[in-house]
Design a protein that fits this description.
Rossmann fold, alpha/beta, binds zinc ion, 10 helices, Quinone Oxidoreductase, Chain A, domain 1
């Protein structure tokens, strides 16, 4: 089969590789769509994966090609989305069913081979059956949609709130969609330049550019979805007295909070929370089952988030576009086995 195999940092090769093995309890997925996550860009070009070679790609959907066990035969031929984290099932977080906080997890597309490939092996437990009318490229965004939903739930999103989203990445915009679904009175995405306006407004969210952190409006609920010192200082300033601030953006480095801004955390008695990954529990209710339901009912608008589609042969073009910010993008999708 064909796959993008990372042999070393900055050495991704589109090449012929062996079909993945299918251990007991696992399934082989014929990949139909894989999103390029913003985390894939440093993973491929600067940070690398946990070992080499590894096939990246953790946001994907496809068709169950085969299973290892007779008991799982019913999955064969089903259209599926995939929770990419494989919990250890031994640590305290796993025993508490908080798999997203597992201390010894495995991960499809970073710690083991992922879905920049025609086929990928995944445990049957990680499969999510798709309704017929959810397209593969939408289903490939279930992971970031679940991460966004998890963040909103962590912050206690509720109807009537004003919501500010710091950052214009896909998860931030997805979080804005969730805020609307949960009845937010007003959702504003805050960016640093005008070139993201059209993309955000196409998703039916308000957009504002903030250059001066001291001149930002205040919101009941703020989601920080960038992870730079500047954006975190802005997020604190943008949260109302007694408001909710959820920190989601992966830190770009050490985060310095200005003294005057730090005072605001105290004087405004802010509720600060961190969020990580998403909650999944097989076929039991989870962030992921909520995502499937909302995609099916179209309560959240997913298709507007896909700004670019590439064939499997064109994946490098998608990576270059994101690496060099050649044009504004939200979700860059690759289509497989067409
Ligand atoms: Zn991701
Ligand atoms: Zn664990």
């Amino acid at each position: 089969m064909k796959a993008y195999n990372l042999h070393a940092v900055n050495d991704l090769r589109y090449e012929e590789v062996a079909m993945p093995e299918c251990p007991r309890g696992w399934a082989i997925i014929k990949v139909k769509a894989t999103g390029i996550c913003s985390s894939d860009v440093p993973r491929i070009f600067s940070k690398g994966t946990y070992h080499f070679p590894t096939i990246p790609g953790h946001e994907f959907s496809g068709i169950v090609h085969s299973v290892a066990d007779e008991g799982s035969e019913k999955w064969v031929g089903k259209r599926v989305g995939i929770f990419p984290l494989i919990p250890c099932r031994k640590c305290q977080s796993c025993l508490d069913k908080h798999y997203e906080m597992c201390e010894h997890y495995d991960y499809i597309g970073s710690r083991r081979d992922g879905a920049f490939a025609e086929y990928v092996a995944v445990p049957v437990w990680n499969l999510v059956e798709l309704p017929d009318d959810v397209p593969f490229e939408v289903a490939a965004m279930m992971e970031p949609f679940a991460v966004a939903l998890h963040a909103m739930k962590i912050g206690g999103i509720s109807s009537g709130m004003t919501v500010g989203i710091i950052g214009t990445g896909m998860i931030g915009i997805a979080a804005g969609q969730w805020a609307k679904k949960y009845g937010a009175k007003k959702v504003t995405v805050i960016g640093r330049s005008e070139d993201k306006r059209e993309m955000v407004e196409n998703c039916n969210l308000d957009y504002t550019v903030c250059i001066d952190n001291n001149k930002v409006a205040e919101f009941d609920f703020v989601l920080e979805a960038v992870g730079t010192p500047n954006s975190i200082n802005l997020a604190i300033s943008a949260t109302k007295r007694g408001g909710q601030l959820v920190l989601m953006g992966n830190p770009s480095g050490d985060i310095i909070i200005n003294q005057l801004v730090f005072w605001k955390i105290l004087r405004k008695q802010l509720h600060l929370k961190g969020t990580w990954n998403s909650f999944f529990d097989g076929t039991n209710p989870s962030d992921w089952t909520d995502v499937v339901t909302s995609l099916e009912t179209k309560e959240i608008e997913a298709e507007c988030l896909i700004t670019h589609k590439f064939s499997q042969e064109q994946l490098f073009e998608g990576l270059e576009l994101m690496k060099h910010h050649i044009e504004p993008y939200c979700k860059v999708m690759t289509l497989w086995n067409e």
